[in-house]
Amino acid sequence: MKSIFNFNKIYLVKIVVLTIFLSQVVLISNPITKDPTPTVKKMIGYIRYKKNTNAISMIDTETFSSNLLKGEYETFSSEQKTEFEEAVKQYIENKSFPVALKYFDKVDINYEKPVPRGSAVEIPSSILYNGSQQLKFSWILHEKNGNFFVTDFLTDGKLISEVNREKQLLPLYKKEGYAKMLEKLRDASK
User: Fold this and answer.
1) Are residues 117 and 26 in contact, defined by beta-carbon separation less than 8 angstroms?
2) Count of CB atoms within 10 A of residue 93's CB?
3) Using one digit for the tens of pLDDT, what is the confidence trace for 159-177?
4) What own/partner pairs with CB < 8 Å and gap ≥ 24 does 98-101 have?
5) Using the 8-state DSSP alphabet, how is residue 34 labeled?
6) Domain 37-188 has CATH 3.20.20.100
7) In whole angstroms, what is the distance from residue 12 CA to residue 15 CA?
8) Position 26 pLDDT exceeds 80
9) Quick one: CA torsion of 183, 101, 151, 111, rounded to 10 degrees?
């Protein structure tokens, strides 16, 4: 009888220790200290009311620009980085926001719980478009100086920066160089 009691006592201690350990792992492994979803909601509000200058301020265009030409961007001079980032901002404001307005105007966006993704946070989301077509996508955000900023957009399992880099910007940069790529990006932004 005494050996069974000791076994149960040891078993109980192991369960308590395991429970404490697992609760600490969950606390340590979840780096999200505040919800980044309000950043996205605020940006969408700005887009809906065509306040594109305010909406663009919710995007970390420096990080997004770097992702668009990953590897190449780091070789740019500070002046080239600034020019490229400004051209990217102009493109987002003039081309991307009007497309987003078409999808996000007068529809409810469903936001799921934010998920840590390395140094980023992903917010899986969806909308019902045309009443029945569900579009799923995710916002990718990074925290900078205590605030969250959108740094990318995930759709169909692919980051928008990767798609644009591989299909448009990188081939153009390699074929025609920085100046021509920048010129074409600016032209496309009009």
Assistant:
1) no
2) 17
3) 999 999 999 999 999 999 9
4) 100/44, 100/47, 101/47, 101/48, 101/50
5) S
6) no
7) 5
8) no
9) -170
pTM: 0.79
The DSSP secondary-structure symbol of 167 reads I
Q: Which run of H or E residues covers position 153?
A: strand 147-155
Strands 158-159 and 147-155: antiparallel
Burial class (CB in 10 A: 0-12, 13-18, 19+), 39: buried
- Summarize pLDDT for 75-93 with one digit per residue, the tens: 999 999 999 999 999 999 9
Place of tokens 């492994």: 29
DSSP-derived 3-state class of residue 115: strand
CA 151, CA 98: separation in Å to the nearest integer?
19
How do the domains of the chain map onto residue ranges?
Answer: 37-188
Of 106, 65, 107, 110, whose CA–CA distance to 87 is shortest? 65
